[in-house]
Amino acid sequence: MEKPVLYLKDASIFQRESLILSDVTLHVKKGEFVYLIGKTGTGKSSFMKTLYGDLPLQKGEGEIVGYDLATLKESDIPFLRRKLGVVFQDFKLLNDRTVKDNLLFVLTATGWKDKAEMDARIDEVLDKVGMKTKSFKYPYQLSGGEQQRVAIARALLNKPELILADEPTGNLDPQTSVEVMEVLQEINKNGNTILMATHDYALILKYPSKTLKCDENQVFEVVQKSV
């Protein structure tokens, strides 16, 4: 049996001393598209931050893309993040450089050296999200939906084993949210594993998939109809 990309067993998620989620047991298999839902304040963001090394896993077992979260060292975090693609609600693009230079910055920071290879990879990921013709623009010249497409392209650069999307449509209107979702669906069809935190139930109904819910300090899988 193939190893899951993400696996947690009896894990507790803390924000400093506060227990946010307890006894979390779950696994995400390669190629899955999984939603993480729950009201604001139920622990979705703390859960995501634990997965990409912003918060330590203080109790229980956890493994993500081959890294043991319980024993994760500070020095491992940059390497872990190279195997993850993280998409944030507020895009986190650098406004003082073009789309292409935003992506070049990431490649340079993660050890790419060959200019031709870097250019080819940037073209490839921008093409995947329908932004190839806008590589010379600055983020402030783009709409919110276009900025999020660039953020998704950035997440794809290092061919991640898992994409963590934390409320990727949170700042977008319904139509743009659907467009961004279409991009994520397409990427998932191409084999990328995606875990997406969202409170947009309209999207979940439109694109049903495995759904985990944060509620009352727990995370559990929900049957689609009861979302």
Automatic annotation (TrEMBL):
Keyword tRNA processing set for record: no
Keyword tags: ATP-binding, Nucleotide-binding, Transport
GO MF, one example: ATP hydrolysis activity
Residue span(s) of domain ABC transporter: 6-227
Pfam families given in the database record: ABC_tran
GO terms under cellular component: plasma membrane
PROSITE patterns on file: ABC_TRANSPORTER_1, ABC_TRANSPORTER_2
Stored InterPro entries: AAA+_ATPase, ABC_transporter-like_ATP-bd, ABC_transporter-like_CS, ABC_transpr_LolD-like, MacB-like_ATP-bd, P-loop_NTPase
Family note: Belongs to the ABC transporter superfamily.
Protein task: Part of the ABC transporter FtsEX involved in cellular division. Important for assembly or stability of the septal ring.
Protein name (database record): Cell division ATP-binding protein FtsE
